[in-house]
Design a protein that fits this description.
This protein has 156 residues and is an alpha+beta fold. A hairpin with a 2-residue loop joins strand 6 and strand 7. It is globular. The protein starts with a strand and ends with a helix. The N terminus is likely disordered. Pfam families: SnoaL_4. This is SnoaL-like protein.
Amino acid sequence: MTDAVSPAGDLESAKILAIVASIPLAVDLGRYDLAQAAFAPEIVIDYTSLWGGEPQRTTPAALMEAWRGLVPGFDATRHELFDLEARIDGDTATATAGVDGRHWIGDALWRPIGTYHWTLARRDGRWEVTAMTFALTREIGDRALVAIAAERAGRG
């Protein structure tokens, strides 16, 4: 039986929501070790609504390396999550959240807005993210900042 759980739900939903919420916060703080700890050993990452291409099967370490090659090039980032929800079905779960991702270089802002979808599995009593998808619904600002940030991060 599948249980729909709200943010004010039970203990297991609280654990799931804490794990998924930790990922963007950890990245904003430059704590890639903390973000990496939220993931299973192999993951599927899907940013196709933002970048095109195909979903990628990868490892948490490779994902962190990719993020390190971009995020530090911004002067600041802030990924605000809202409307977090979790659904648990035995040892698997899904979670969703709206996200407003703000990325600054100086006063210039790039702001992709959308929804994160996570799939999780419980292994050895601990929830791990096995898949993460970002679905873009709106974009504000200058996407060209991404190339600037990538260049800056590569020099850092």
